[in-house]
C-alpha cells in the first residue's frame, strides 16, 4: 500500500517540478528576449502553468499522500531523500492550505495594484499615495500570520519562509554586534583619505566586457555545458534543472564593475545550483536550501573571492590586456582599493560590501516593528530617515531615494531582506572553515586555482540542495551555529588594511 | 445548455494552445541554445506537456463537446471562427481516436528506432540495414490508413494530413505538365554555357552576414517587435503566438547564400504567422492553413522576390557596401545569374529553384506506389536511381546521396514531400494574382517597397490562418483552383532569360 503511495507521491512531485521547469524557461525568456508583442499572451501561459502547479500542491491527492507518508511509522521507513521531500511538501501544503483561496487571490490582486502604485509613488516622491496600499498589505500579512500561527514572535513566521528555522531572537543577537562594529568602522573610514576610483568610470566596450566576464566565469568553474550567459535589465541566475542553470548580466558601457561583479555574484548562485546532487532531480529539494545560504554563495564568490587581493594578483594582467588604455598607469593595488571603496550611500543595491549590511538592518528593524504592530505605516518615512542618519550618517532628501526605493514591500515580501545579511555572515563563516580545511587556499586563489575551494563547497553545501536545513548545513560545515564574528573580523581586517586604520 | 458547452469547449481548446505554446518555447530553446547537460531533463518536460495536450485532444470531455457542437442544428448557429475551430478539432479527434493508443505508442517507438537506424545506414551507405525498419513503418502506415479510411486512393488519406483536400488525382494532373516542361527546360539549360558563381564562395564574416540579414528582414516587413532572429543547425520559423514568431538561420563563413536566402525563406513563413488575425488566438486556427500554403509563402519571398532582378536592382548596392571586397567587379546581372544558377544535383535540400520540383516528384511517385502496394521497400534504391537518371540526368553513386538522404520516411512522414512543390505552384499563382491586382508591383519591389504586396497577402492569405481551407484560399485569392501553368510560365520566362534560350 505505502509503496504505491510513495511512487504516486514521487510522480506527482515530479510532474509539479516539470511544470515549474517549463514556467521557469518562460520566465527566463520574458526577461532576456521575448518579443514585445508576444508578452501578453506568454504571461497568460505562465499564469496557467504556475496555477496548475499550485493546484497540484494543495490537491486532495497530495493531501492524501502526505497524510499517509507523514505518519511517524511510515516516515521513518523512507529513505533520506524521500523523507526530506515529503516534509518539504508537507510544510508547503500546510502553509498554503491555511490561507483561504479567496483571501490569497485578493492578496495577489492587492500586491499587483500596490506594485503599480509604488512605481508611481517612487517616480513622484509621493509616499502618501502609496501608504494606503502598504497599510492593506501589512494588515493582510498580519492576518496570514494569525492563520499560519507563530511561536515566539509574529515575524518569525515570515523569516521562516526564506530562512527555515531563523527567528527574531537569533537575528537580533547576530545583527547587534555586526551593526555596532560596522557603524564604528564606517565612521573611522570616513575620517581617512578616500581611495581613487575615477578609472573605473571610463568607456568599456560591451563586447570586451562580455569576453572578460566569460573568461572569469570559466576560470571560476561555472560550467557552460550546464548554463549560458545572457543579458537582462536586472541580472539574475535561474536553475531550470541542475544541467541548465542560466545567468544574466547587464553591460553598462561606462562602468565595467557592474557587469563583472554582477556576473561573479550570479555565478555563485549558479554554481550552487549546478552542483546539487543529481539524486534530488524531480523533487523540490533540487534547489538552494534557503535564501540566506544561496546569498552566501553569491556574496562569497563576488566579495570574498572576486574582490580579494589574491584574485586580482592573478587576473589583473588579464584585465589590463583586455582594457589596456583604461588601466594604463593604474597599479593592481589601486585597482583593488577602487573596487572596495567604502562610502555611505542612499541606495541599497549600489552599496558597498561594508555598508550594505546597515541598509539591511534598517529594513529588518522596520519590518519587525511593523509586523508586530509597534509602528505604523504612516511613520515609515520618518523612521527610515532617522535610522539612515543613525547608522550611515546620511539622510535621504526625499522618499524616492529613501523608504520608497525597494519594490519588496509593494510585492508583499516581508522577511526577505534579512537573508542578504545572513548570506554575508554565512559566507565569512564558510571562508573561515575553508581556511582551516585548505590552509593554502589564498595562495591557490592567487595562482588562479579555485577548484579545491569549489570542491569543498560542493561537498559541504551545494550537493545537499534543500535536502538539509540551513542550520544543519552551517553546523556540519563549520562546526558551530551561525556566528557573526567571522564576518566582523573579515570586514575589519580587510577595510582597516585598505584605509590604513 | 449549448452556450455553456461553447464556453467550455473554447476554454479547453485555449488550454491546449497554451500547452502547445509552452512546448514550442522549449522546442525553440532546444534548437537554439539549451545547455547540453540540460537537454535530457528538458526533453522529459516537453514529453509531459505534449502528452497532456494530446490527452486533452482525445479526452472524454472533448468528445462530449464535439458531439454536441457538431450537431447540424447547433453547428449552423455558431459564429464562423467557432464553427471552423469545432470542425478542426473534430477532424483531429476522429483521426486520433481511430488509432488504438497502443498501436500509436508502438509506432512512436518504431520510428524513434528507425531514425537512429537511418542515421547509421546513411553514414555507412547501407540501405539493407535500414530496410526492415522502413518495411515495418510502411506496413504500419498502411494499417493506419485502413483505420482512418479512404475514398479513392489510399495515399489521399496521407496527403490530406498536410494538405487538406488534396488527392492523388489532383496532384498527378498538376505534376505531369510541370515535370514534362521542367525536364525539357533543364535539358536545354544543360546545353548552354553555365553562369559564374565562384564569387559567392568567399569568406563572408558572420557578423556582417547577420547584419545584412537583419537589414533585409526589416526591409521585407518582418516585425522584430513580434519576433527575433537566432542561430540553429537547421533553420526554422516557429510561431509561439502571433506576437512572437521567431526565425533561425545558420551562418556559413564561406557562403553568404545559405544564411541570406534561408533567412528570407523563414521570413516568408514568419510573416504569414505574424499576420494571422488576432481573433484566432486561443484556437488551433491561429496557424498556417496547410503545409503547401505555408511553403508557398517561404518560396514566394525567397525565390519570387528574393531571387528576382527587381529585388537586387534595389539591394545589390547595399550588399556590395557590406561586402565590398567580395563583390568587387561583379555586376548586378552577374550576381543575379549566380544566385539563380541551375544545375542538376543529387541532394534535394541543395537543389536550385528549377530542379527542386523534380526531386519532389521522385519522392511523391515512390510514396504513392509504396503506400498502394505497387512497389516494395526493397526496390527503392533501384527505382530512386532510375528516376534520378530519367528526370535529372544524373545517377547517385551510392544510397547515402540517393534514397537515404532524407529523414522523413524514417520518421514515418509520408504525404509531406508533395507540399514543397504545391507551395511553389501556389506561390506562382499568387504572384500572377498580385500582378493583376498591383500592376506595377515589380517597380515597387525595385524601389524597395514591398508593403502593398505584403498587404495583399495579409488580406488574401495570412489573416485567415487555418480558418479557411487551402483550396478556398487559393480560389478566393486567384479566381481559380490550383493551376501549375503559372509556375511553368514563371520558370520558363525566368530561366530562358538567364540562360539565353
TrEMBL record, chains A, B:
GO MF, any single term: zinc ion binding
Gene Ontology biological process terms, A to Z: proteolysis
Residues engaged in binding Zn(2+): 265, 269, 295
UniProt entry tagged with the keyword Transmembrane helix: no
Cofactor binding, per record: Binds 1 zinc ion per subunit.
Catalysed transformations (reactions): Release of a C-terminal amino acid with broad specificity, except for -Pro
Family matches, as PROSITE patterns: PEPTIDASE_M32
Residue positions of the active site: 266
Superkingdom as given in the UniProt entry: Bacteria
Keywords assigned: Carboxypeptidase, Hydrolase, Metal-binding, Metalloprotease, Protease, Zinc
Enzyme Commission designation: 3.4.17.19
Cofactors: Zn(2+)
Family listed: Belongs to the peptidase M32 family.
Role noted for this protein: Broad specificity carboxypetidase that releases amino acids sequentially from the C-terminus, including neutral, aromatic, polar and basic residues.
Protein's UniProt name: Metal-dependent carboxypeptidase
Originating species: Tumebacillus flagellatus
Amino acid at each position: 500500500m505505502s509503496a504505491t503511495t510513495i511512487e504516486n507521491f514521487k510522480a506527482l512531485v515530479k510532474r509539479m517540478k516539470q511544470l515549474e521547469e517549463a514556467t521557469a524557461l518562460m520566465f527566463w525568456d520574458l526577461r532576456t528576449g521575448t518579443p514585445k508583442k508576444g508578452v501578453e499572451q506568454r504571461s497568460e501561459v505562465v499564469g496557467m502553468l504556475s496555477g496548475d502547479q499550485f493546484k497540484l500542491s494543495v490537491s486532495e491527492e497530495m493531501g492524501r499522500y502526505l497524510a499517509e507518508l507523514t505518519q511517524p511509522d511510515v516516515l521513518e521507513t523512507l529513505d533520506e531523500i524521500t523523507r526530506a521531500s515529503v516534509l518539504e511538501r508537507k510544510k508547503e501544503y500546510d502553509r498554503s492550505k491555511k490561507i483561504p483561496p479567496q483571501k490569497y487571490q485578493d492578496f495577489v490582486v492587492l500586491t499587483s495594484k500596490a506594485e503599480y502604485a509604488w512605481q508611481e509613488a517612487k517616480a513622484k516622491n509621493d509616499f502618501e499615495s502609496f501608504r494606503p496600499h502598504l497599510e492593506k498589505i501589512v494588515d493582510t500579512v498580519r492576518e496570514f500570520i494569525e492563520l499560519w500561527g507563530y511561536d515566539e514572535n509574529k515575524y518569525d513566521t515570515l523569516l521562516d519562509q526564506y530562512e527555515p528555522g531563523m527567528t527574531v531572537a537569533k537575528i537580533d543577537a547576530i545583527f547587534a554586534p555586526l551593526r555596532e562594529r560596522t557603524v564604528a568602522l564606517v565612521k573611522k573610514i570616513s575620517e581617512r583619505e578616500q581611495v581613487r576610483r575615477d578609472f573605473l568610470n571610463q568607456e568599456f566596450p560591451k563586447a570586451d566586457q562580455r569576453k572578460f566576464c566569460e573568461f572569469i566565469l570559466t576560470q571560476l568553474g561555472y560550467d557552460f555545458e550546464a548554463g549560458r550567459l545572457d543579458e537582462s535589465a536586472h541580472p539574475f541566475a535561474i536553475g531550470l534543472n541542475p544541467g541548465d542553470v542560466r545567468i544574466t548580466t547587464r553591460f553598462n558601457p561606462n562602468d565595467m564593475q557592474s557587469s563583472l561583479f554582477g556576473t561573479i555574484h550570479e555565478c555563485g548562485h549558479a554554481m550552487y545550483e549546478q552542483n546539487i546532487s543529481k539524486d534530488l532531480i524531480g523533487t523540490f529539494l533540487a534547489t538552494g536550501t534557503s535564501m540566506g545560504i544561496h546569498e552566501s554563495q553569491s556574496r562569497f564568490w563576488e566579495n570574498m573571492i572576486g574582490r580579494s587581493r589574491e584574485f586580482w594578483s592573478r587576473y589583473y594582467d588579464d584585465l589590463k590586456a583586455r582594457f589596456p588604455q583604461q588601466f594604463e598607469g593604474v597599479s593592481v593595488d589601486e585597482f583593488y582599493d577602487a573596487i572596495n571603496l567604502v562610502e555611505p550611500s542612499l541606495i541599497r543595491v549600489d552599496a558597498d560590501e561594508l555598508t550594505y549590511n546597515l541598509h539591511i538592518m534598517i529594513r529588518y528593524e522596520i519590518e519587525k516593528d511593523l509586523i508586530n504592530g509597534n509602528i505604523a505605516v504612516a511613520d515609515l518615512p520618518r523612521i527610515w530617515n532617522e535610522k539612515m542618519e543613525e547608522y550611515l550618517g546620511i539622510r535621504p532628501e526625499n522618499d524616492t531615494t529613501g523608504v520608497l526605493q525597494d519594490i519588496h514591500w509593494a510585492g508583499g515580501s516581508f522577511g526577505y531582506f534579512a537573508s542578504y545579511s545572513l548570506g554575508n555572515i554565512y559566507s565569512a563563516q564558510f571562508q573561515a572553515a575553508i581556511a582551516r580545511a585548505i590552509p593554502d587556499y589564498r595562495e591557490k586563489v592567487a595562482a588562479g586555482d579555485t577548484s579545491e575551494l569549489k570542491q569543498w563547497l560542493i561537498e559541504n553545501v551545494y550537493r545537499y540542495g534543500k535536502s538539509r536545513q540551513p542550520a544543519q548545513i552551517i553546523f556540519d560545515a563549520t562546526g558551530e551555529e551561525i556566528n557573526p564574528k567571522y564576518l566582523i573580523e573579515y570586514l575589519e581586517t580587510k577595510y582597516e588594511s585598505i584605509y590604513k586604520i
